[in-house]
Amino acid sequence: FKSTVSEEQQAFKGYVNNYSVSDIILKGMKGLSYLKYQKQRLTEFLNKNPNMKIIVETDLSFKNPNNEVIQRRLKSRRYNVHNPDELNGVLNNIGHDIETQIEITEYVQSGLVLAQVEKLVISYDRYNPTRGSSFIPLPDWVANKKACINIKNEDDLCFKYSVQCGFYELYKKDHPCEMYHYKKYVSDPTKEGTKGDSFIKWDNIEFPVDNDEIELFEEQNKHISVNVYYINPDTDSKTILLYKRSNNPQPQHTIDLIKLTDGVKSHYAISKIMII
Length: 276
Prior knowledge:
5 helices, 6-stranded antiparallel beta sheet, alpha+beta, globular, 28% strand
C-alpha cells in the first residue's frame, strides 16, 4: 500500500533513528498492518548492527457519538531485537500492544471508535545487552495492592521461581518473595527436573526466557498454563494488559505473571490474585 515515509526528529531519548509512515490508506485497525512493511528497513539496520532496540508511537483519530474527531497518541513497549528472524514476531507484538490500547481507549471513553491510524513513528537504535541481577521492583501503585509476589532473585531465573511460587503454593508462606524458599527447588537449572522439582519439566529451557521458551515450557508441562501480562506504558492509565495468553487449554494449574522491564533488563513477578 502506498504511504509517505519521512525522517523525524528524535522522538525518544537514546534513539538516533526516527522515521514516520503517514498518508495511510487503510481505515481503522487495518492501518496497523503497515507495520509489517517496515521489516526491510529494519533488517538492513540489523545486518550492520548485532542488536537493536525499537519502539513505535501512533497518532490516531477517533470519532465520538457526535461524529467529532478526537486525536490520541499511543505507544508500544520497547523491544530488543537480536537478529532479522525475530522481526516478524516483534512487529506483530508492537501491533498487538497498540491494538490493545486502542480497545481500552474505546472501552474507557465510552462512544469513541477508531477512525484512522494517521501516522506511525518508528524509533530504533543499537543497544548493548547487559546481564546481572534481573530483579526489578514493582511500581508503587501495583506493589501497594499486595497482589503480586516479586521474588528477589539475583540471577536470570525469575520465570522459574515465579512458576514454582504458584505451582507449589509458596505464596502462602511468610515472606514468599525471599529466595530461601526456592533454594530446595534449584540445584542445576540445566538438568531435567532438579531434585525437589520433579513435577515440573525444565528440559532445554534457556534463561532468561522469551516467548519461545515459554511455549517450549508449556509443551513440556501440559498441566500448567502461563499467562503473561505487562504494565501499560502510559503511566497515567495505571492498567495491566495481556502480553501473552497460554496455549494450554485444560491445565491443572494456571500461573499469571507480570513482565516488568527496565531498559534492557526484564523480570517476572507473579500475581497471587489470579493463581488457580
